[in-house]
Q: What sequence folds into this?
């Protein structure tokens, strides 16, 4: 688990889980995804697979332009309509 982004509006955490124990199949793909939290709406989503890859590519393209926090939040906000899970603190 790695915190990738944290603003007043959103948090993005990377979950990267190796597909196989280390050493058995070093060419095996990892699995995991991104948890995106909308702090104001108090909702979250966990994306994986192709959607996570699309998110990653979009973020990388945005990072190449040295974005402001507002620009990053605007990009992440595109995923807010997918968020259905209420945020619950333990």
A:
């Amino acid at each position: 688990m790695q915190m990738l982004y944290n603003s007043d509006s959103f948090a993005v955490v990377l979950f990267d889980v190796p597909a196989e124990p280390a050493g058995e199949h070093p060419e095996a793909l990892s699995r995991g995804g991104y948890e995106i939290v909308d702090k104001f709406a108090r909702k979250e989503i966990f994306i994986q697979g192709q959607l996570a890859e699309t998110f990653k590519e979009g973020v990388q393209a945005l990072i190449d332009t040295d974005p402001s926090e507002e620009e990053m939040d605007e990009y992440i906000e595109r995923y807010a309509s997918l968020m259905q899970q209420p945020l619950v603190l333990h």
